[in-house]
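INSTRUCTION: Work out how this chain folds

Token vocabulary: learned, describes local backbone geometry

RECORD BEGINS BELOW THIS LINE
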Amino acid sequence: MFRRGESVPFAFLADADRFRSNVTPPPRAQRSAAEKAGSALFGLTVVAGLVGSLILGVPALDPERQSQHGGPAAAESR
């Protein structure tokens, strides 16, 4: 079988760990107080929604509460 002269088919990939760019990214713009408050309000809204769904959903999944009310309505029709 024919073998190539270079050990790595793409020699530039082997040299990529030694490459250092001299291009620096632009500085990040400072967020205003309104943007920070908006982000905090959005985060609080998401957390409040999750907590509210747990508060409303966990009692509905309790099997003891379902048996107190006579069970599902479909079982009564049999």
